[in-house]
Design goal:
By secondary structure, this protein is α/β, with parallel strands linked by helices. It contains 14 helices and 13 strands. 42% of the residues lie in helices and 16% in strands. Helix 5 crosses helix 6, helix 8 crosses helix 12 and helix 11 packs across helix 13. The mean pLDDT is 91.
Length: 381
């Protein structure tokens, strides 16, 4: 197949959706498909750059989250989409809407993915969970893009359930975003400080709730022996640094390359994920694949609790007291860490991106047949 991937801000790897787009592009090419990418800042083979889309008030907030909207460009579309078999859209904004319209006008099948959770919008707007606002955003996204798309990729069953709840009638394909094969057990980073190193990965924002992790460590009986690594960027860095300053060993805030992150996670016995809202949270699967034992928050709008294999890996979101008890329990039972680490590694490696890309390609083939029949055309061989 010749596949066009449309994503507002593809080069930014601190954004999970951008990372997924880049990983899928690489995996699909390795499987023999031709992949072109249309995005702001697109670079590399078969990539088509479009301008940034400046939106008053919204753009400064988005750039603070390391994200840029893209401006549709018909001339770029005419060149990029020539002879493609399918156009796949990652986000429901102006670029994706225009790409959908181009596909409809030229008889090219169009699919989409649901990667932006409405709760991500409300938490970053300091509105909290705001269920009524989230309901309105689901409707808005449906009206903007998804209501006119027959096949939608959902990274988790949780978000598929939410789409059904909010009246989405498309065919939903639940496919993990996939873990790169580089994430696997092995020799980790060497620490010679006598401390227990614990890691969490995610954007420094309200819905990721790293503050609960800091408060939990402050409650731990092992607090004098713990060093927390908070890997990510975001608007709450200074606030979290202030909260972490009271710990005996203040957290290390860092943004690591993939290789350095793998080395860190291989060296950390525990990975903590406190997020209140997450469509899938690939960072959890990546840590598991490296052999970390997770402690994951349970929340209605957060999917990664599905990866927990035992009750000692779960706590109610926001409950720093229970999280502290679980951290202490695992550190008091190193034999349990040794027992569960390989089990979690197998769980994390079970959804390699190559396998997920094969399922994704099968979805595209189904969508091509479905869309072309709607256009009254024969499926291309």
């Amino acid at each position: 197949m010749r596949i066009a991937l449309v994503m507002d801000d593809m080069p930014v790897r601190s954004n999970g959706t951008s990372s997924t787009a880049l990983r899928y592009a690489d995996a699909l090419r390795e499987q023999g498909h031709e992949v072109i990418c249309v995005a702001f800042g697109a670079d590399g083979p078969d990539s088509f750059d479009v301008p940034e889309h400046h939106i008053p008030v919204v753009t400064p907030v988005a750039e603070g989250l390391d994200f840029h909207f893209a401006q549709p460009d018909e001339a770029v579309f005419d060149e990029a989409f020539a002879d493609v078999d399918v156009i796949h859209i990652f986000l429901p904004f102006a670029l994706g809407q225009a790409a959908r319209d181009w596909g409809r006008a030229h008889g090219v099948p169009v699919t989409a993915a649901f990667h932006l959770q409405p709760e991500n919008v409300t938490y970053n707007a300091n509105l909290g969970a705001a269920p009524l606002v989230c309901d309105a955003i689901y409707r808005l996204f449906r009206d903007w893009l998804y209501g006119d798309i027959r096949h939608i990729h959902c990274p988790s069953q949780m978000i598929a359930n939410q789409l059904r709840k909010h009246g989405y009638r498309s065919q939903l394909h639940v496919i993990s975003d996939g873990v790169p094969k580089a994430f696997c057990p092995g020799e980790g980073e060497g620490f010679n400080d006598g401390l227990v190193h614990i890691v969490t990965v995610g954007r420094l924002s309200h819905e990721k709730d790293q503050a609960t992790i800091i408060r939990a460590i402050d409650r731990c009986s092992h607090r004098d022996q713990i060093r927390l690594h908070i890997c990510g960027k975001g608007p709450l860095k200074h606030r979290l640094e202030h909260e972490g300053s009271r710990l005996p060993h203040p957290p290390i805030f860092e943004y690591r390359s993939i290789d350095d992150l793998i080395a860190l996670e291989r060296a950390c016995p525990l990975y903590i994920h406190a997020s209140i809202a997450d469509i899938e949270a690939m960072s959890v699967l990546e840590a598991l694949a490296c052999g970390c034992v997770p402690i994951i928050a349970e929340a209605e709008m957060s999917a990664p609790s599905q990866f927990a294999l035992c009750r000692e890996s779960l706590f109610e979101a926001g409950d720093d007291e229970r999280l502290a008890e679980l951290i202490d329990w695992w550190l008091d039972h190193p034999e349990k860490i040794a027992e569960w680490s390989p089990r979690y590694a197998a769980e994390g490696m079970g959804d390699h991106v190559e396998k997920c890309a094969e399922r994704f390609a099968a979805m595209l083939e189904e969508a091509i047949a479905d869309d072309l029949s709607a256009y009254g055309e024969e499926v291309r061989s």
